[in-house]
């Protein structure tokens, strides 16, 4: 009788160990996936877009500087890229109305990158709303109309951000592929990172002065994407023409 009891006790302990180990393994996998998921949505509410089903969207963030945006526009024109989306900080747009006008004139889409470089996850809803509203005013003064897209200035956002953006009539856009150009790792590395592009990707690039190698890497990036027979589209076109992917933020 005692033997029977001891055996069950050992079996139970082993079972607890197995279940506990499995639980923590599953938890770590889950957390790892959440960390790497590039965009989120509330369970039943507004969504953030990070990927489509087909084509490819080039996106450029510009927050400061007056040297890199124009060379990038020159490359896009030379390489005959008709569609791209520029996420512009309102403060930058105010200081560079001529560049904003050129982006519009050449047919590229504009999205809002907030007004200041703020981490929206660290702000209260009212502060997020104020930052977006300030950017709205800046673009209205520049006669840039019908902006429907927004990207969190630092790339960090949460349910709170999604809800504020949705109430103001914007869709939050993240990315599925980061070129890492903002780290200035070398032209070859940027090209290699972008070479992972596949259909439906939203590719993150930068046209701020801090991204010193993007303009030189861009021709090879474009040529590589063309070699895959991927069509360049704006983010709005991607949203309109295909299903887009989201993941829930907790």
Automatic annotation (TrEMBL):
<dbReference type="InterPro" id="IPR011330">
    <property type="entry name" value="Glyco_hydro/deAcase_b/a-brl"/>
</dbReference>
<dbReference type="GO" id="GO:0016020">
    <property type="term" value="C:membrane"/>
</dbReference>
<dbReference type="GO" id="GO:0016810">
    <property type="term" value="F:hydrolase activity, acting on carbon-nitrogen (but not peptide) bonds"/>
</dbReference>
<feature type="transmembrane region" description="Helical">
    <location>
        <begin position="12"/>
        <end position="30"/>
    </location>
</feature>
<keyword id="KW-0812">Transmembrane</keyword>
<protein>
    <submittedName>
        <fullName>Polysaccharide deacetylase</fullName>
    </submittedName>
</protein>
<dbReference type="InterPro" id="IPR014132">
    <property type="entry name" value="PdaB-like"/>
</dbReference>
<feature type="domain" description="NodB homology">
    <location>
        <begin position="54"/>
        <end position="233"/>
    </location>
</feature>
<keyword id="KW-0472">Membrane</keyword>
<dbReference type="InterPro" id="IPR002509">
    <property type="entry name" value="NODB_dom"/>
</dbReference>
<dbReference type="InterPro" id="IPR050248">
    <property type="entry name" value="Polysacc_deacetylase_ArnD"/>
</dbReference>
<dbReference type="Pfam" id="PF01522">
    <property type="entry name" value="Polysacc_deac_1"/>
</dbReference>
<dbReference type="GO" id="GO:0005975">
    <property type="term" value="P:carbohydrate metabolic process"/>
</dbReference>
<keyword id="KW-1133">Transmembrane helix</keyword>
């Amino acid at each position: 009788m005692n033997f029977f009891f001891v055996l069950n006790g050992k079996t139970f302990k082993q079972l607890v160990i197995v279940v506990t180990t499995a639980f923590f393994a599953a938890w770590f996998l889950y957390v790892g996936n959440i960390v790497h998921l590039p965009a989120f949505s509330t369970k039943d509410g507004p969504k953030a877009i990070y990927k489509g089903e087909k084509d490819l969207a080039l996106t450029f963030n510009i927050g400061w500087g007056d040297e890199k945006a124009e060379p990038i526009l020159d490359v896009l024109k030379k390489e005959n890229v008709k569609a791209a989306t520029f996420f512009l900080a309102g403060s930058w747009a105010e200081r560079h109305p001529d560049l904003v006008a050129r982006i519009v004139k050449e047919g590229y889409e504009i999205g809002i990158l907030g007004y200041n470089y703020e981490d929206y996850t660290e702000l209260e809803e009212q502060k997020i709303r104020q930052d977006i509203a300030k950017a709205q005013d800046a673009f209205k003064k520049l006669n840039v109309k019908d902006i429907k897209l927004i990207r969190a200035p630092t790339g960090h956002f949460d349910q709170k951000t999604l809800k504020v953006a949705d109430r103001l009539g914007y869709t939050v856009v993240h990315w599925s592929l980061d070129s890492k150009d903002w780290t200035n790792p070398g032209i070859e590395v940027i090209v290699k990172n972008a070479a992972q592009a596949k259909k439906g990707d939203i590719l993150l690039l930068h046209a701020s002065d801090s991204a010193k190698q993007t303009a030189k890497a861009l021709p090879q990036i474009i040529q590589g994407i063309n070699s895959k027979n991927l069509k360049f589209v704006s983010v709005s076109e991607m949203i309109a023409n295909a299903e887009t992917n989201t993941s829930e933020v907790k």
